[in-house]
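Our preliminary data section would be incomplete without showing what the modeling component actually yields. Below, a chain of 109 amino acids is followed by its predicted structure, encoded as tokens that our downstream tools consume directly.
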Amino acid sequence: MGEIGHGSRTAAEGATGENHAGSTSQLYTWSIVRRKVLIQNNAVAGGVNLYVRINAATASLTDYDVKLRPGAHLIPFSGGELLCARVAIWADGALNYNHQTGFVVRGWA
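Predicted structure:
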């Protein structure tokens, strides 16, 4: 059927963002709105949890949509169109923004 990933026929694009310093809210964005998003906290993330808000400017320990423990992932609204422009993430520790040792935020148009 030619599908590339998670039910999409297009390749995923990583959100623009940096390594997470921890104990702050950081924003991850795309140049265009995404219909499907994957947020994954690697199992080797060293016990760092991610507190995630979809389409929000900030996230915190008390204001988040979902908490991702190491090894967990989220594909919100995977059965429909999410229309996501940004993802705010609070991390309770420093974490690399890469799939080998940290976390990823990817989206499909």
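The two ends are 18 Å apart (CA to CA). DSSP finds no helices and eight strands in the chain. Preliminary results of this kind motivate Aim 1 of the renewal.
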